[in-house]
Amino acid sequence: MLDIDRITLREIRLTLKEPFRISSGLMHERRIALLELTDRAGASVMSECVAFQLPIYTAETIDTAWLAITEWLAPRVLGRTLAGPEVVHDLLEQNIRGHHMAKAALEMGCWGLAAEASGVSLSSLVARAQAAVAAGYRKVKVKIRPGQDVAFVAAVRAALGRTIGLMADANADSTYGIVTVELAGGALRARFENADLGVLAPWEYDSFRSTPASAADDPATVTFLPDGTGHVAAVRLFGVRFARAERDAR
Length: 250
Prior knowledge:
By secondary structure, this protein is of the alpha+beta class. The chain is built from five helices and 13 strands. The chain has a seven-stranded antiparallel sheet, with no helix packed on it. A four-stranded antiparallel sheet has the order 3-2-1-4. Strands 5-6 form a two-stranded parallel sheet.
């Protein structure tokens, strides 16, 4: 059973350690909506709404999510006795189109609260995903990020088997792609995918600092990693190692 007695919304502003690069530019600060859900027994958990402050990824923003949660979504679960977190999704979907991030923030909080009230870890509820697969659900998505990707996907695949579709979602993370370093016009230049990082200049030891073509872009640090024989084995950019791949001679 799930008895939600109180839902508290808070907004925080988080200055990023490194700018988050998206197709529309650089993001230096995040406005984040946090939900605190408390049940009648006093158990409490936090959940996050991942909507951006501008509609640059989806039509949702932190402000539209705030409105949706306070006006339409939270009243559907607040002060009610629910059979469990598994009923929340359908409850929030009834006659309310869209607002998926707002709904997800509330639903995630309900799952977390159920785990807290039961005295079990949230990860232990992953067994419900296995039950969903057994019931005929054929596709699962898992969120990844640098350093938490290959092993995470492998663990999910091992748990669910190979008969269902598995998608890894990096949220267009800028650390997944191809880095190109070349000598052009007498200068060493770097590119990440289709983005020109600019001219590289010696910075310290094996690291070079870029001079972006646009004043709106921040400089990037490219570190060359030797293979022990005098050749470059990889470069490090955005904190991620990119192994060397020889350019196709064609």
